[in-house]
Amino acid sequence: MRIEQLEYLAAVTQHGSLRRASERLHISQPALSEALTKLERELGVTLLDRRRSGARISRQGRDLLQNMVDVLEAVDRLRQAAGDQGSVTRLLRIGTVNAATSTLLVPALRLFQDRHPGATVEVLDAQQPEIHQGVLEGSLDLGLVNVLAGDDAPADLAGTALVHGRPVVVLPADHALAAQPAVTIDQLREERFVAMRAGYLMHRFAHRLFEGRMPRRCHTTDGAEMGKLMVAEGLGITVLPDYSVVGDPLERTGLLVCRPIAGDETEVTLVLRHREGQLPGRVRDLRAALVEVARGRRTPEPTGTVMEVVPSQTA
Question: What is the mean pLDDT of residues 36-64?
């Protein structure tokens, strides 16, 4: 067994195909495939499910993944201790549904970077099912997802609740409804609406809020960041978790405001998903940075009161 073989498997797991992994590693695809086949033969297990659509880590490979990552982390520390300036630190990947990006994720990345100047983090926008699958299969190290009260936690994944809040109406600052203390569902239904695409939690929440009768005039988009931009440009109004809006640059500069939904008591939580068991060192440190920023965060509610966020473990 060679260290390169473990690095090859980690690359295929991250990039989802032999072709993309070979391009990243700068080796030929046949050579990559042969090296992994030899590793499978030596270990006596099938590590990859090879399909026309790509290669994914197998169930047996997933059971061994943590051990392989631990070895690669140890090798990386050894190379750094030996002064190997050419060593390549393992890329960390975090998936996000674009919630609390500017107020939580970016400050946490800055804190992590200060502590690990040589680390590389890749942030990927994705829908919740894709994030859960990526974390489970190892193509993502961490995932940020929104969860409604009562939602079942995915099997084989652990979670840390970072921020608790409520869905709010997001409006241009000069919109007529911004003058009201709260917005009713009937008023929402009469406005041009910016909805999240199917696969996002706020898509499911909007359909539940409107009882299946969505506003007649409706745009759809991927994620909160584009939704806020569309609202700021006057293309409609939307509904998002308050922690995705309060403190955002568009809200701080006065382009957006948010108001409670009259009569709605729904709770929504931003949860950090990761695999069960001991996390690799730098993944653990990135998780700690996210928890630290969340713990120090104080989010003004739309009504003017203040909510203190205290991370807790979710089932």
Answer: 80
**Residues, the chain:** 315
**For 203-239, what is each residue's pLDDT tens digit?**
999 999 999 889 999 999 988 999 999 999 999 999 9
Q: How much is the CA Rg of the chain, to the nearest whole Å?
A: 22
Would the pLDDT of 303 be above 60?
no
Give the residue-averaged pLDDT of 107-121.
91
Could you tell me which residue, 274 or 309, shows the higher pLDDT? Answer: 274
Which tokens is 172 given? 């241009």
**Interval 94-112 mean pLDDT:** 91
Contact at 8 Å (CB) between 203 and 259?
no
CA–CA dist 225, 221 (Å, integer): 9
Q: What is the pLDDT of residue 43?
A: 84
- Determine the pLDDT at residue 87: 47
How wide is the angle at C-alpha 179 spanned by C-alphas 257 and 193, nearest 5°?
55
**What pLDDT was estimated at residue 79?**
64
* pTM for the full predicted model: 0.71
Instruction: Annotate the chain with DSSP letters as a single string.
Output: --HHHHHHHHHHHHHSSHHHHHHHHTS-HHHHHHHHHHHHHHHTS--EEEETTEEEE-HHHHHHHHHHHHHHHHHHHHHHHTT-TT--PPPEEEEE-SSSIIIIIHHHHHHHHHH-TT--EEEEE--HHHHHHHHHHTS-SEEEEEEETTPPPPTTEEEEEEEEE-EEEEEETTSGGGGSSSB-HHHHHTS-EEEEPTTSHHHHHHHHHTTT---SSEEEESHHHHHHHHHHTTS-BEEEEGGGTTT-HHHHTTSEEEEEBTT----EEEEEEEESSPPPHHHHHHHHHHHHHHHT-EEE-TTS-EEE---EEE-
Question: Exposure of 238 by Cβ count < 10 A (0-12 exposed, 13-18 middle, 19+ buried)?
Answer: buried
